[in-house]
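Task card 7
Instruction: Convert sequence to structure tokens.
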Amino acid sequence: MKKTIAMLSLSTAALSFSATAAIGQHPVVLVHGLQASQLAERPGPSEVSADGEQYWKKFWNTHADVRIDWPAHERVAGKIASDYAWPKLKQLAQSNTCSNGCIFVTHSTGDLVTRYILDNQENWLLNEGLPPLNIISTFDFAGAGGGSELADLAVNIIEGGGVLNTTLRLAIALWLGEIPNSSNTGVLNDLKVSNARQIAPFPDGRVPRIRFTGDSSEFLGITSSFLPGHDDGVVASHSTCGSSTVGRFSSCSRSVAYDGKLSYQSGGVSSFMPQHYPMLMGKGYTHVGVIGNIHQGKVTAANNRVSLGDGSQVSVNTSDSWSWWSWTYYRYVNGSDSQTMSELVSNLR
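Output:
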């Protein structure tokens, strides 16, 4: 009964999307990230759907066709998959929405949820006598598929294995709104770095996963002290860039910095998880800002062009300019002086 209710509420929510929303004529499926208030509130399907719509309201709701909403108090391989992702995948297959190729747009933990979907959707649908979805790419904003050290700290504290000093208490409270307890850890367990990297690490669906990352924080750097290398205030670059290893990385590229400076990056990621391709990096963009409608500075390109699963390509044009002040070249994506990162991505062709 719960699965039926979830499917009906998700189907109703989908009616609010634009019938023509697409990226390059490919339907867009949204998968949101962690919604911390749900850990304690434990919402039902209708509330989960309402929260999902609210999550994307600043930009992506009007640029997408479908949402997969899920509750933070559940686990990825548990009810998130069975009660929320599966009904929506079945609906997409029955409606042939992805017959010409869908693009999944994810944010934060949605990256991890989507990886589990990519690994299982074919078998799930074939077992129901339905065709697998033709997912040609994912566009992952601030991807947490590699986990977040903040989740490790939060769960360790809850389980009594961590020391809760004033700075750590403030960092966790800024991120989650409150310190969780043992009854409401939910998806935080999946977000622990080692756990996240063990969930479908080599999904059967070999889908290009294109990464869009920031390097700023809404939290005045307080949370950043607990994250290795460069970060967006919630997730470190080893995860957002798609690195195959955990480390203190300074860029998603070996040749360009987050601020666009063209120079060798000794701390840049050089080895990536399968099919992971960083594309846009923004020095001024925060974890939430990457999917918002507020311009947070110019962005650069770790890769100018990436191939999708159907053989087509998406690309950005960049320009290099000389800085007399720092005596070096900087590379910026054309139009990023006025367009937000999400606007740039929605216009990819």
